[in-house]
Each structure stands twice: as C-alpha cells, then as structure tokens.
Amino acid sequence: MACSCSAPTPKTPAPGFRRALWFALWVNLAMFLVEGVASLSSGSVSLMADAIDFFGDSANYILSLTVLSMGMLWRGRAAMVKGITMAVFGLVVWARALWVLEAGTTPEPLTMGSVGFLALMANVCVAVVLFKFREGDSDMRSVWLCSRNDAISNIAVMGAALGVFGTGTAWPDLVVAAIMGTLAITAGISVMRHAKKDITAARAETLAQNVSASPSHSH
Questions:
Q1: What is the CA radius of gyration of the chain?
Q2: Are residues 136 and 9 in contact, defined by beta-carbon separation less than 8 angstroms?
Q3: Taking the mean position of all CA atoms in its chain, how far away is CA 130?
Q4: Which of 98, 113, 96 is nearest to 166 (CA)?
Q5: pTM
Q6: Sign of CA dihedral 19, 31, 5, 162
Q7: How confident is the model over 53-106, as pLDDT tens digits?
C-alpha cells in the first residue's frame, strides 16, 4: 500500500528514535533492491509496486533524518520532490501493468509469494522496532502506522501470488498492482498539495519577517 505518511519532524526526538529510523531506512532500502530484482525476474507488477513502496518509505526516513533542523521552506521543497516521485512511480506501475496485459505474460507465483512473505517479515521487524514510539507525537505515530500499513500491501502481494497460482493468469497480480499504483498516484498528489501550502506559507512568513525588519519599520 503506497504510504502517504509525511516524514516525521519532531522537535525533540524521543531517545532511540533516530536510531530506529536508521534501522527502518536500511531495511526498506534492502527490500527495495530485493523486490525490484524479483519483480523483473518473476514478471510480477504487484512486486514492482511494493518495491516502489519500499523506496518511498526509504525517502521518508531519509527526509526525516536530514530535515529535522531545516526550516519549513526546505521541508516543503523536499516533500514536493517526494510527492512528484511517488506519482511518477505510480504511473510507471500502471504503464508496466498495461504492458504486461498487452503482452499476455503470466508472473511466476512462487517468487511472488516467497518474496512477498520476506517483505512482510521485514515490515514486521520495522514495526516492532518502532512500536514503542507509537504513542509519541503524531509524527512518530505516523511512522509506526506507515510500517503497519505496509504489511497489508505485502499480504496483498501474497494473495495475488495465490490467485495467479490458482487461476494461471496474470489478472490477480494486475489488479493488486493497479490498486497500489493508484494509491501511489493519489498519495503523491496529496503530498504535493500539502507541500505547496507549506512552501507558500513559509515564503509568506519570510516576506513578513523581511518587511518587519526593514528600516522603514524599525522606527
């Protein structure tokens, strides 16, 4: 499931939170590579969508680790880039799904299921590490919920693998991929809209501060 969680930006991170984010980052990057390769070898579009989701989560964690001390303008710009990337990746999933549909190829269900299960275990590990921060501020809670929700997408991929195995067709894989691709597009658009508001607000605040600090307003 494409995660639209915003990057956490707590002013005073709880003890161990940064270390937990680093763990989550490396796990997500590793699974992005594993699922990316597996999606190409198996021909599964839903695995590709899940790999992209891992990449998106990695971007979230990188963002959270790098912009803690930055102002709203730069956080907004970073979020805008993230939103655009999410939407583009969603379109890539749709394009890949349409290509597979046209080609009439059927993905390899064993690889889909086994890698989907590995991804589920990875997300469970991340969720366990982040579990103690679930009652922190809204940002910390969003990170934990993000990992929890990602597990649902892994289960969906495993379900798609079972469907492909049972029907001998690519339709279960394509349906799951289409849903995940659509979620990535809509989440990306939502992030871009929110980022645009943040950028506008930051620029307005900067302008107001400059005006108030100008010589004509200093007397």
A1: 20
A2: no
A3: 16
A4: 113
A5: 0.75
A6: negative
A7: 888 888 878 877 776 556 777 777 877 887 888 889 899 999 999 999 999 889
